[in-house]
# Entry
Amino acid sequence: MSLMRAPAQFWIARRSREHIVGVLSGHFGGIIDDQRSYRTRGLWVAASVRRSGIASALMSSAVEQAKKDNCTLIWTFPRESSISFYESVGFKRIGEWVDSGEFGPNIYALKTI
# Structure
């Protein structure tokens, strides 16, 4: 087995230079079933601009980066309150809900890219 450390990438959506309205981070997520994977985490969009396409644009940027990194899968561990967004952009739930304490419950979600 070999382990790799990969730096995180960040995408930021701004309304103006000073006003951030969305953020997403991602990084190499390891090998899953002999396939390179990419992990997204920390998706946030300001409540005032939700459902305006910002989350989808941020996710598209992460998918493009994953492809550049030669990954064929992208995965995440979203909260219950956001799983509908992930499903709307092609992620499938994997396993059962996990009560991870302060931010849970969460569930693994995977998408082939």
